[in-house]
């Protein structure tokens, strides 16, 4: 289950809460009963290996854009296991 960071808009109290995706967001501060706000920070995701950069899966004569190359790479990756599984 993910951990969400909350901060009170009234008193500034900050805390973390472990909640399921289906749980409603917390709305009341446990310290002063003020309104809470979710805090968003950077996530710890790294993309390792080939295929994540614009130049990884392109030939020099290709005129496609980065967005279409990324879409083609993701659809190709999803289609490959289905084709090999048949």
Automatic annotation (TrEMBL):
SMART domains linked to this entry: CxxC_CXXC_SSSS
Domain Putative regulatory protein FmdB zinc ribbon: 1-41
Pfam families xref list: Zn_ribbon_8
Superkingdom in the source lineage: Bacteria
Region feature (Disordered): 55-86
InterPro entries linked: Regulatory_FmdB_Zinc_ribbon
Chain intervals with Low complexity compositional bias: 58-86
Protein name in UniProt: FmdB family transcriptional regulator
Gene source species: Microbacterium oryzae
């Amino acid at each position: 289950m993910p951990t969400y960071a909350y901060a009170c808009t009234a008193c500034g109290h900050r805390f973390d809460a472990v909640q399921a995706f289906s749980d409603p967001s917390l709305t009341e501060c446990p310290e002063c009963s003020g309104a809470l706000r979710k805090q968003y920070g950077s996530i710890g995701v790294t993309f390792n290996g080939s295929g994540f950069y614009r130049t990884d899966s392109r030939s020099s004569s290709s005129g496609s854009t980065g967005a279409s190359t990324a879409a083609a790479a993701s659809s190709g990756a999803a289609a490959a296991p289905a084709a090999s599984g048949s």
